[in-house]
Structure to design on (57 residues):
């Protein structure tokens, strides 16, 4: 849950920077971001389409 919290903060900062026209360099490496390692991936790195999400889960 700690990584989820940090990823949310990173996303907010990135969104703010984009709205203000600034560049943003995330603190967390991409591999450590919640949305990167929690999403189901195929062997080629693409997202799997057969996983349950939201209400279906």
């Amino acid at each position: 849950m700690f990584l989820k919290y940090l990823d949310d903060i990173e996303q907010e900062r990135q969104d703010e920077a984009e709205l203000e026209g600034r560049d943003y360099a995330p603190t967390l490496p991409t591999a450590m971001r919640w949305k990167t390692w929690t999403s189901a991936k195929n062997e080629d790195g693409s997202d799997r389409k057969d996983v349950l999400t939201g209400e279906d889960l």
Summary: The chain has a mean pLDDT of 82. The CA atoms of residues 14 and 24 lie 6 Å apart.
